[in-house]
Structures
1.
Amino acid sequence: MKFERCRNCQNEAMRFVLIGNTFLMLFKGILGVLCGSAALVADAFHSAADVLSTYITMLSVKYSKRPADQDHLYGHGKIQFISSSITGVILLIGANFILIDAVKAIYYGHYEPPNPMAMLGALVSVLMNEGMFRYQLCVFEQHRSPAFLANAWDNRSDAIASVGVLVGIGMAVFGLPIADPIAAVGVGLIVMKIGWELNVEAVRGLMDSMDNFDSLKSIYNVARETESVAGVSYLRSRYTGEHVYVEISVQADGNLKVAEGEIIVNNLVQRIKNEIGQDAEVQVFLLPAN
């Protein structure tokens, strides 16, 4: 890890993000109602979904730390993919409500220019969400936790949506009131897109889809460069949350003694772990070379 304190940053990050999202939910919601901005209220609803998804992420990360047992031989890490999917479903549901209300306002002409103070809510949202995105992305890079990656991109989607809200409110304030509900529609579409992508990635993770070719290639090169390894028969890996499991079968001289074979295996295991740079369980199978 880059810094020693990164080992404990998961819980700190979750608390920080939970507090930040709760503040934005209340701040934008109250300000949006007082200022008469449909776009800011929609953005507050987005933050409310973030609060719920953060709770889900906290629970999934805690549960995924449980050790492997008789029923879960690879541990409990894949619950983080389920967490990502739940977050995505929440966003999809929220997006539908946002879109319905905004389209109704546009269709029936129920819109007025909001108070200029609404722009402050959108600006604060942009800055805070971008900060939370960068913080959680750093946590993901250190721990490889899918739940943190999902939550990070959720905050990035909030930041992007809030930029649109800021522009929409600004246009509404300065003479184009329909821009406020149009901005709300933009928020809804962005939320829907992120929710869909999170579900797609969660399904890929649960189905052990092959999306780590570069990592496998580097592991293969490490194996071929390991002393006494004559070839690689097969190689595969799978993610269970933030942990990666690697299975590799290598060939070596069939006349080697058992102790010599163990040295090769132990050496290769350590080299692969160093190459991956994260928590990993590596199984090496040693076969005689043809």
Note: The CA atoms of residues 204 and 211 lie 9 Å apart.
2.
Amino acid sequence: MRPRSILHVDMDAFYASVEQRDNPELRGKPLVVGGGDNRGVVAAASYESRRFGIRSAMPIAEARRRCPDLLRVAPRMSHYQSVSRQIFDVFREFSPLVEGLSLDEAFLDVSGSLKLFGNSKDIGRAIKARILEKTELTASVGVAENNLVAKIASDMDKPNGLVVITADDCQEKLDPLPVSVIPGIGRETLKKLHRANIRSVRDLRLATRRDIEPIFGRFTSKTLDRAAGIDDRPVISSRGEKSISAEETYERDLSDSKVMQRELLRLTERTCRRLRKAGLQAGTVQVKIRRADFSTFTRQKILRPPGNATDQIHAISCELLTSWLAEHPGSRIRLLGVGAARLTRSSQGDLFADSDAASAPVDKTVDQIRDRFGIAAVGRASTLSRPDTE
């Protein structure tokens, strides 16, 4: 079989880099993109802030302790999505086989593009240049014969790197790396491996099944393959979104059920707007709840027929929250989220069905106004005030 040519393209500190590009005053300074000053978490950290040990998912308060001069900006997800579309347009200039992993990274199978654009390293170099030209942002690219090794390679020379790993030098380049570069090895698994004196990819590659089977169980064979750089997964360009959601962590815990319902409406509006823009309907409505003690719960309900009307999905999310509150009276809420799953393509429904279809024209009008004038141009009256103290 002819070897494949796979690229993994990963934007460098994407959200933070977009903010620094758009605001020259932020360039060269430690910066995070994330939620509120005290209760939020870091969504992205600039390379200047990473020197202080700041990383994504770290509480903002901890990040500020590590770097008192840290700058913070609120996320602008719709803007990042717009920039992401520009980047993915570049990917598709070079190959139709693009598998997006997130807004800022993707696998590309360029095996069929070599005659047009040169070897895979040349294509990686051209993609980096095209992204820089189009967005003024840098990307790191890993080039290999499979997804696994390409992904590892893209992280070896960040930022703005280009690393090629061939079949001939794969073992030489992977062996010295820490075993944590193998996907699927989390913090607890890493502790177990260290206790077994397995610290590098080489250690794992040379380990016996008897050594690691107690750690990986039925995934032992797959893990040994990964340590040897073996990965047969194809690049899948048709993978659609499995769920769409919106969530928020609050500066002050919520304790009033009316305030919670108001916040659910905000989150429902965001989720449903994304559904409608993608031409999707939800078959299941999900609510995520995190208490002040960080314990997290989810509740869900099937939606028949599937829909994307804001009022309909908000009613179900309120029903789910009310049911949960009855089981956990007096709870104070740190985070709320509203999600849509079991997604299907939108279709013309029965106009005479007993449903909330009457709200659809209102949703469509609101979407059109926001598309033209911005997200804050129009909103339901019940969402106009924010929770201050609870």
Note: The chain has three domains: 1-167, 171-227, 243-383.
3.
Amino acid sequence: MKTGSLFLALLFAGSTLGAQERATIPAQRAESATVTPSQALDSAAAHANQVVAGELHQGAEPAEAGEHHVAGCEHFAAGDYITPHISDSHCIDVPGFPKFWVVHEVVLPKWAPIHIGGLTLDMSPTKHVVFLLLGATIVALVMIFAAAAHTRHVQKGGRRKGFASVIEVLVLYIRNEVALPNLGPHGEGYAPYILTLFFFILTLNLLGLIPFGSTATGNISVTATLALVTFIVVETAGIKANGIGYLNTIFYRNKDLPMVMRVPMFILMTPIELAGKFTKPFALAIRLLANMTAGHIVVLALIGLVFAFKSYYLGAVPILAAVGIMMLELFVSFLQAFIFSLLASVFIGQMREGHH
């Protein structure tokens, strides 16, 4: 169950759980007053069997929780509402019909792993892979639609309007205000990559805010891959722009220093310069991962308070707080896409300049 769909179920959860608890407590007291030693032993044995059964099912949540678990899907500890929403799995969640707030899990295809020497690669699709493909498809369709609309408006000589004009404004802003000023002279060739980063990351972030969605940018494998591709582009841009002078970005050599200082500074600064090349993509990956994951954890923790309070009145407070955090998450989705694109353009520009 995703964050958006939880809000639909919360309206029914508070009073229902509270009523169940109030009805159960008197019955438990009545039973405890007449229990016999043999009944106590039987009750303890039944409880032990339930515990063992729960462990065998890997902590699957009970059917009353409103979720439908199927074989092949990952299960989590009972009461754990956070981990399933921020982790990857081999299943995707779909709404039920007609009770669309009831979550059903669909198992994704499982392929035979590929063996390369002693390395085993599992190429089976996962939930985040599905949303990566969905995000890429959405970005491609939106850009094709916006380009076609732009061409049509230009040919007619009319004023640009509608959704295509919004996309055009975003494209022009990222290109002219973010990419080109930081890429340096003759850096227009890298502007399409910066634009692709921005819209792709933004789309993935927004997909995690819709009901039954998933935030692929909350997966370290996704953010690390984006950072690795950016690292390759940065270093390639440096080699292309500086030629043999690219080595100066690794081996520190300051011609302004006297000779007696050049060797010690070379020995001291070269490892630092080399480490700096890898800290940049590391910072890109961790920053995006941490910001997208933290917001979801806060929202889910607030929603979990509703089940703890078991009351409409007290449950309204964390729901309002969660809605506020969701609004902030919408802003953070744009902000993190902007920051990733900005830093990528800055790193490319610095490497193309070839100086420190």
Note: The chain has two domains: 3-115, 126-353.
